[in-house]
């Protein structure tokens, strides 16, 4: 799908579909007003059939005095309450309506509606991301592909073009490409999306974008002494991988050295819980337990795709968590790459075990900041639901930067405490500490576990257990937090 930025007048543009916003109580946006005038009030007359709910749509055909064959009206709700959510709902509503139409091109006048104090580049980015998301399809595994109903190939964003907006457009397109990758990897089942499959995907990215790639195999992990990572993969027939993918968009040399961002993604391609087996209900959703890994690959794809002037290294520990004769058992003690010993009281708390060794490994790249991304705890879903990603950080400035990027990307986070008071819940009689801290504050004690491996780094942890995928009818990956990570990387490098 192509997008372009061009000033146009809504009544005379020859477009398959002109998309116009209308606030409540027949409060027309400027573009809608012009069309109404050209059509001698025909638009206003039709309005009573437009439901009030933001995102509702009404299609009009062959309006007199209007060049476009179709006009799609989109309800925006109260003008005074036109928020980020309302804008995104109306974009989604419009895109879904366009999907059902057989149009090749559309012009989104909706993009030019002021949202709180957001600059128009914000509107533009979210128009692109929202439209691309609505048109995303996953029918790779269906024998009967849906007929290519939507042939929408060109979208015009009617704004006065300038360098800043063109850049926002390029960023949004690349971000959508990265999100599509993360989404598809998440949606693929675990019999296809194995650790080896993820390594192959990394190889494809490395080839396409000329990235540095290293894939560590089981014997490498053994040689290094990644006892925690290895404990998780014990019973799996799929070989584990540690994927290290590097994009040097800011140049490898140069003085002072451009800051390096390390992204560490949890890549459990299926989490049965191991010997601490999970209940059967909804266990299929544990194929999404590699969403952190998918989002790291997606973010690197986005940044490389837009040739962003940033340096990023992605570190992805990936394996399955299975029960079996070789499986790690509750009470087993392992030595991590850091040298610290861990008593594995629950084999279902496996994410922190693969992450702790990956975080220790990431330190060798001397990153300026490390962010890990993981579907880590059910407790985070209890705490924050499916709206906010849990944010934990050992550095206030880094936390603030992430919060700001998340707000900008509207890929929201909520910061949780990482106080030492919680650390005692991890005490063990048999090792340096245990891998679980009991029910109270479960997402916090998981973060506290990771904090014991990141003391020498500026580090943040994103628990995406509640935000990486949707359940129920709409089951599928959300690609979060790709938009947040891309925005963070750009802002962190000084590219607002
Ligand atoms: N991958 C799960 C976390 C999860 C569960 C994410 C449900 C989304 C939905 C993780 O590996 C896990 O099993 N965590 C345990 C930790 C517990 C044993 C301390 C959990 O949250 O129950
Ligand atoms: Mn688990
Ligand atoms: Zn897990």
Outline the secondary-structure elements.
Layout: E1 2-5, E2 17-23, E3 27-28, H1 30-38, H2 42-46, E4 57-61, E5 70-77, H3 84-100, E6 105-108, H4 120-135, E7 154-157, H5 163-187, H6 195-209, E8 212-216, H7 218-224, H8 227-233, E9 241-248, E10 260-265, E11 267-271, H9 291-305, E12 311-321, E13 332-335, E14 341-344, H10 351-362, E15 369-374, H11 378-384, E16 389-393, H12 396-409, E17 413-415, E18 433-434, H13 442-451, E19 459-463, E20 469-470, E21 476-477, H14 482-492
Parallel strand pairs: 1-7, 2-5, 2-6, 6-7, 10-12, 10-15, 11-12, 14-18, 15-19, 16-17
Antiparallel strand pairs: 2-3, 4-5, 8-9, 9-12, 13-14, 16-19, 20-21
Helix pairs in contact: 3-4, 4-5, 5-9, 6-9, 8-10, 9-14, 10-13, 12-14
Bound molecules: ligand BES, manganese (II) ion (MN) and zinc ion.
């Amino acid at each position: 799908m192509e997008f372009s930025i061009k000033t146009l007048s809504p009544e005379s543009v020859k477009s398959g579909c002109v998309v116009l916003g209308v606030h409540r109580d027949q409060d027309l946006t400027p573009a809608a007003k012009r069309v109404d005038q050209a059509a001698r009030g025909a638009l206003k007359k039709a309005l009573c059939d437009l439901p009030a709910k933001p995102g509702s749509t009404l299609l009009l055909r062959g309006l007199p005095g209007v060049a476009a064959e179709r006009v799609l009206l989109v309800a925006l709700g109260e003008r005074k309450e036109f928020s980020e959510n309302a804008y995104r709902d109306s974009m989604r509503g419009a895109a879904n309506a366009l999907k059902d139409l057989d149009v090749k091109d559309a012009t989104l006048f909706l993009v030019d509606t002021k949202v709180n104090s957001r600059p128009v580049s914000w509107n533009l980015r979210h128009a692109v991301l929202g439209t691309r998301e609505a048109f995303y399809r996953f029918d790779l595994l269906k024998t009967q592909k849906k007929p290519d109903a939507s042939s929408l190939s060109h979208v015009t964003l009617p704004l006065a073009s300038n360098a800043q907006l063109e850049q926002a457009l390029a960023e949004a397109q690349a971000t959508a490409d990265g999100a599509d990758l993360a989404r598809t990897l998440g949606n693929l089942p675990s019999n296809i999306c194995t650790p080896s499959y993820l390594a192959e995907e990394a190889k494809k990215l490395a080839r396409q974008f000329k990235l540095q790639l290293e894939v560590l195999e089981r014997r490498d992990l053994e040689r290094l002494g990644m006892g925690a990572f290895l404990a998780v993969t014990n019973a799996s027939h799929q070989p584990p991988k540690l994927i290290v993918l590097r994009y040097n968009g800011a140049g490898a040399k140069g003085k002072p050295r451009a800051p390096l961002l390390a992204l560490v993604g949890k890549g459990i391609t299926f989490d049965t819980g191991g010997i601490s087996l999970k209940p059967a209900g909804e266990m299929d959703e544990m194929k999404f337990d590699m969403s952190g890994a998918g989002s790291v690959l997606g973010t690197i794809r986005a940044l490389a795709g837009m040739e962003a002037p940033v340096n990023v290294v992605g570190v992805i520990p990936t394996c399955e968590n299975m029960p079996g004769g070789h499986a790690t058992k509750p009470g087993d003690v392992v030595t991590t790459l850091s040298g610290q010993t861990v008593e594995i009281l629950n084999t279902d708390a496996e994410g922190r075990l693969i992450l702790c060794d990956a975080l220790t490994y990431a330190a060798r790249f001397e990153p300026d900041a490390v962010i890990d991304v993981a579907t880590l705890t059910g407790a985070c879903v209890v705490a924050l639901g499916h709206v906010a990603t849990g944010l934990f950080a050992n550095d206030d400035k880094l936390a603030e930067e992430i919060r700001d990027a998340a707000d900008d990307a509207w890929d929201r986070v909520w910061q949780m405490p990482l106080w030492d008071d919680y650390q005692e819940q991890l005490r063990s009689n048999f090792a340096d500490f245990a891998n679980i801290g009991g029910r109270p504050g479960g997402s916090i004690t998981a973060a506290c576990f990771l904090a014991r491996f990141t003391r020498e780094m500026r580090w943040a942890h994103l628990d995406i257990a509640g935000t990486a995928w949707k359940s129920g009818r709409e089951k599928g990956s959300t690609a979060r937090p790709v938009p947040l990570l891309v925005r963070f990387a750009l802002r962190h490098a000084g590219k607002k």
